[in-house]
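Re: manganese (II) ion structure - here you go.
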Amino acid sequence: MSTVAGYLAENRPRHLDQLSELLRIPSVSTDPGRREDVARAAAWLKARLREAGCTSAEIHPTEGHPVVYGEWLSAPGRPTILVYGHYDVQPADPLELWTSPPFEPSIRDGRIYARGATDDKGQLSIHVNALEAHLRTSGRCPVNVKFLIEGEEEIGSPHLTPFIEANRKRLSCDAVVVSDTAIFSKKVPSICHGLRGLAYFQVDVRGTDHDLHSGSFGGAVINPAFALAQMLAALKDARGKVKVPGFYDRVRKLTPAERKSFASLPHSDARFKKEIGAPELHGEAGFTTLERLWARPTIEINGIWGGFTGEGAKTVIPAEAHAKISCRLVPNQTPAEIGRKVEAYLRKLAPKAVRVKVKNLHGGPAWLAETGHPALQAAGRAVERAFGKRPVFTREGGSIPVIASFTRLLGVPSVLLGVGLQDDNAHAPDEKLDLDLFFRGNEAAAYLMEEMGSRA
Ligand code: BES
Ligand code: MN
Ligand code: MN
């Protein structure tokens, strides 16, 4: 009988083929035209969970995209892990910037390129492969395993929290396990113990009922695009401080120990700058890059539109202008409070001559876990075994809002065992997953099951 690591090594080609199959399904959750593809990805996963050895796997319809749930619970007396992941992906556009088509996985230089490779189809697969490896080598798994794979993460998980609330018993577990983040670098394996939160809004500014000739009317009426630009410009000062009144009220200060631990990581601003092709870095004065990314809140303009943007010139005063803006949050800010404060400030900034609408799109609070927790320590040992190197604890600037819901509703810790890389191009053209990290991830996930199981 082969070992788990031996099994995973032998089955690399098949695990890669299976990942490619899943990557070929364009499960873009935000695109209504892809509804059937999203459903097809859910069906594929359900079948894969059964094949991997789950004793049951089901598709649960929601008002949006379905939730896939599967379980293997034949280790009585052992702890239970709940693996969370998402099978939906971000839109692939701009298509012309992809080297190979986003939904035709292509392997180059030891990486697999496709939308969803790292976020999150490749990463969620490691836990399925790990369970399969245990079951096929010894007929049993050291822990009970539940899978909760959603199809709406990239649109803010609108139906997942109600699903968790309605299925608390079924989802009860000792720890949630998630692979949907990056390691610090290929040479520095890491466990993520913090994520920023998110509060996302759309701002609509209207001046007149309809567009106007800018010669006949310009100078006598407000231009809503101008009004919006001035409102947005007032959100932040030149030193990167957010000017929304009360924005920093609840922000937890970085402790000297945290600053020291961030500073001890082998981060280089010069390399970071080069990787993203920026002439200079820019952020809140008084903080390092990692502090800005991991422990400081921000406000950003994600999109801004209105008026004439076509080829050539059109002399027009647009009737309306719009922006998508979002805040990344840190402990102990709440999306609701920040939402109220941002909206109140925008209304205060708006000239009387425009009407302003602020719509809250989605969000969730930040998450920060104690690194000393036994589940995180078990993850550390699992990563050390797979990578041959002790991992460091890091945080991420991104958000997985549902993690905070797990803590709140299930009362258990979450373990973020990511195997992506910062330069995987998540949400961008040429998204990829490093195959070496995928295979190590399979092992790390299998070892995590052992490490969690031995704490029975
Ligand atoms: N996998 C990411 C979360 C992430 C991003 C973790 C960067 C670590 C670093 C997830 O799929 C995602 O994209 N989350 C969204 C939030 C969601 C509500 C749309 C995000 O962070 O923008
Ligand atoms: Mn993700
Ligand atoms: Mn994502």
